[in-house]
Amino acid sequence: MLQLLTKRFSHTVIVLIIVAIIAFAMMRFIPGDPVLIMLGGEYSPEVYAKLKHDLGFDRSVVLQFFIWGKNILKGDLGYSYISHEEVSKILKDTIPVTIQLSLCSLIIAILIGIPAGILSALGRNSWMDYLGMSFAIFGQSLPSFWLGILLIWIFGVKLLLFPTMGYVPILTDFWKGLYHMVLPSFTLGSFYAGMIARITRSSLIDVLDQDYIKLARAKGVVYRVVVYKHAMRNVLIPITTITGLQLGMLLAGAVMTETVFQLPGMGRLVATSILNREYQVVQACVLVIAVMFIGVNLTVDLLYNFLNPRMRNK
Is 282 in contact with 107 (CB distance < 8 Å)? Predict the structure, then answer.
């Protein structure tokens, strides 16, 4: 276990350096001058030059990167010149929103996807199978922003069942927080529910065709026990893989959902900061998302060792 953690940590450092370089370079390639955005319409060349110098934009790009990297190692994520706050404080306010949305979306995806996949596998080539897979394809085909607008119009405007925007922390008010998360979570989780359903179906069908399952059936073991005690134990491994990867994708892919539902999360912050050319904010957000994604993948690797004893000595 210690060897696995050491190996993954070294990989994490390399990945984070590559992500930092890409995030830093991509922001410099985007057209637009952040100094001009700060100054607005009227300014003098002297004021422009002074502000550019104060922000460090008159230095070489390589030097800017190393200065930023040095500050990151010190725990200084930078300063937002639009909101006039430390980036670390902004992230402290926005990260819980994105995590809450991602976890709620993942729970919805699991609660819908796994039962749909099991029913489709057990009723292979039946109406249940066609219905379940039609739902999976339908969920993966709908753009999240379009589905979000559709849910707002039906359940928020017409039926008045759920709020169309706003955020309440679950830790502050659990039930009200969940109530506000219903539409955003279903919007973001529908795509991943379809993916989980398809993975569950294909994995369970493969396992049910294995010899040890046929042997258990020949011995007279109840079919329900064969499925849920023997088959699902092996199906959990690919489900764990796809679920872990999806949680990382949910954290990174909440931009459109947070924008549609006006959630003050990190995804919406990234979109707004790109438009405002806030280099420090975008670079910090990308790094934080990368750390979260890597952390999720490390957790999945550790769960592998727990679920599959054959991998514990590898």
Answer: no
